[in-house]
Fold these 3 entries.
Entry 1:
Amino acid sequence: MNKPLKIIECPRDAMQGIKPFIDTAAKVAYINSLLKVGFDTIDFGSFVSPKAIPQMRDTAAVLAQLDLSNTKSKLLAIVANYRGATDACQFEQIDYLGFPFSISENFQMRNTGKTIIESLETLKKILDLAEKHQKKVVTYLSMGFGNPYGDPWNPEIVAQWTETLAEMGVTILSLSDTIGISNKESITSLFEHLIPLYPAIEFGAHFHTTKSAWYEKIDAAYQAGCRRFDTAIKGYGGCPMAKDELTGNMPTEKLISYFAEQKIKTQLNPLHFESAYNNALDVFK
């Protein structure tokens, strides 16, 4: 059975590392333009400490002004702890809670201030909370393709953690190339092994990439069976907790061009995408 292709647009990821505060009205206008395009999901904001990510301090205010009257896109908010998940669950409009779970001890501490074991307990609580509020959890396997901190990494470690998360009830797992070091071989190896082994899990690809590496990453993931892709227009953004210099997100327009070349249909409206793309050029000056 063919799995549907899902493109998750991530304005939150694009904005979060920008230091000058982006006006709430500008965020609302941009995300509203994205809601018309036809993306499966919009990763629109996060309920995290304003001290950690000042740019996202107005997520609730942005949500209150989004026009959801004529869109099929679902909304995803990132949470880093149980308090954030509790805050997000107060909003009926939010469909998904995104939780970053790293297999790098150093990055987990840097990103959430907790150890891997502590974060595992947090994830268990968030899964239970989400179920009570009729929401789903997207778990990001951060540093899923390696890390710059010297923490142990190999495909077997990724597989072991995937098994642990599957046993906990994780049903959406996005392998995250947090610092942009994945390549064709590592992507193919992980997806070809994990996707058949866990049919109940929807695997995704959250790639950060340089300008020259985007094609091989998309192609390797798609050919290995991945049908869920996180992107950001123009490749804006990256992870401000990963290192000092950001490696950009996977550009949405590059993903679209890949699928057009492969004659693979998406649900995206070209005219609305062009409008959102032009809007992005104004927001990310």
Entry 2:
Amino acid sequence: MKITPIDIIHQKFGHAFRGYNEKEVDDFLDEVLKSFEEITEENNHLKEKITILEERLGHFQNLEESLQKAILTAQKTADELLENKKREAEILIKNASLQTKEILEEEKTEIKKLKEEIEALKKRRDGFILEFKNLLKINLDFLEESKLSRLEKD
């Protein structure tokens, strides 16, 4: 049975021959009542505090759970982003490699063309030199003949 402050106030004791001093019992009951009320009040206050703390704990647990979910989501997003960036980098490297190969092939082709043009120009130069030598020879021969013919005339 749970005793309340009201039970203490209304508690009556019977009289007996050689019983306790009523004033001392009443004074003691007043002290017990006062202590009981303080303890009951403190108990109620502590229960309220426990309720508030449990609510706050629940709030913090929910907050912790939300933060953990947010962290997991952020980590997953970061991992996906990193993976996407790696794939993009690989694609860029492959494209750069292909472009480099294309440029090298174009340059090799251009060099080959230039070498062919240089060879063609050398041949033309050599042909021109040969023609020029022949023309000079013809002119020298002509001059020699002219000189001889003048000498013969004189």
Entry 3:
Amino acid sequence: MRVIERDGRRFAEECVCRVQIRADRELAKARIPRRYQGCSLENYETVHSSATESLGRALSTSKRFTQGYPIETNGKGLLFVGPRGLGKTHLAISILKHLITERGATGVFWEHKELLENLRSTYSVNAPGMETAILKTAITCDLLVLDDLGDITPSDWSWDTTSFILSSRYNEDKSTIITSNLPNEPPSVSFSQPVDTFNQPRQEAKRAMTRLTLADRIGDRVWSRLQEMCVVVELKGKDFRENVKRASFA
């Protein structure tokens, strides 16, 4: 703590070093992958050979979100949609890092598939406390980043679990940042019989994986809720990694 004087009165407030220590601690708990730890809104590239104007708009929306959080955002989140390789994850993690370091928020990053697989794995090891801990963090943190939403074979269990997490955050006015490579569109086919790769024949799983819209993969109920929870940010263009950052030893 440090003592300051204002209007002839003395006050004690947290020292900057303590604020930084807290931010570092929260960043360490946020599960940000090593590859993305250097991401920021400042180094997001909007000018390159495969870029379109949509990337600049996505960056502007991201900056407005961070500037308005938490009062102006009022529990709303962002849903980044578009083809692979346009920097959706970069933007989502940059927002998460900024709000942790600059606004004192708590947050966590999960790939959708990884989150569900971690929850499912707790059943096989008979560790209900572990499942509760994962769910509690995902539901109660100030900001959840859910990456690659829908990148998993749909099933009743995956729909119910995803719905529970997102609905719980919605009810508590918690912002969620989501990325998806799938079109943000209603179901293209009937989903009256969801499939589960653990119980259905392989051909059924393959059939489910060919469904092309976000609503197909997460269920129309969850998809409908997302339209109210999040501002949709659509990115367009060619894969940046393939066209600009292709691996090379040169």
